[in-house]
Amino acid sequence: VRYEVEASPGVCSGAIESNWSGFSGTGFCNGTNSTGGHAQFTVTAAEAGTATLGVRFANGTTTARPAGLVVNGTAVRTLSFEGTGAWSTWATETTTVPVNAGSNTIRLNPATANGLPNVDFLDVDGGGTTPVPPG
Ligand code: GCU
Ligand code: CA
Predict the structure, then answer these.
(1) Which of 5, 18, 63, 73: disulfide with 29, CB 3.0–4.6 Å?
(2) What is the ipTM of this complex?
């Protein structure tokens, strides 16, 4: 299931913009370039378990923009968000997280004052979110 950051209840502490091509949906989150410039998604899992996350991002600088990954208020790990070569070049960083049944918040907190990369969407698989094939 794909969660676009510009779609409610997505949160972008910054601005939803569309000036760099290649994004999905109607825009991306240009977070404020500070440690407070976070992005947050609210995702639904049918069951508790492990979900695979894919964060699509662009970092047009040559310096990584690491961010803390916080699930339901608990810090899980740091994602690296390396430079992608251009703001219009998008990449996906994947990881796994524990999720609860029902609603879960997935937050990206910048680890440095450079802030987040531009963030396009969060893909979530597993944790009961994958439809069971019929039959
Ligand atoms: C540029 C770019 C933004 C980006 C910003 C940054 O201003 O146009 O899309 O968010 O750099 O360094 O974070
Ligand atoms: Ca920014």
Answers:
(1) 5
(2) 0.99
Structural domains in the chain plus CATH codes: 2-126 (2.60.120.260)
CB 105 within 8 A of CB 53: no
d(CA 47, CA 88): 36
The CA distance from 94 to 97, in Å, is: 10
The secondary structure of residue 18, as a DSSP letter, is: -
User: Does any ligand 1 atom lie closer than 6 A to the CB of residue 118?
Assistant: yes
Q: How far is CA 43 from CA 24, 62, 125, in A?
A: 18, 31, 10
* Dist. CA 65 → ligand 1 center (Å): 12
pTM for the whole structure:
0.94
Model confidence over 71-127: pLDDT tens digits? 999 999 999 999 999 999 999 999 999 999 999 999 999 999 999 999 999 999 986
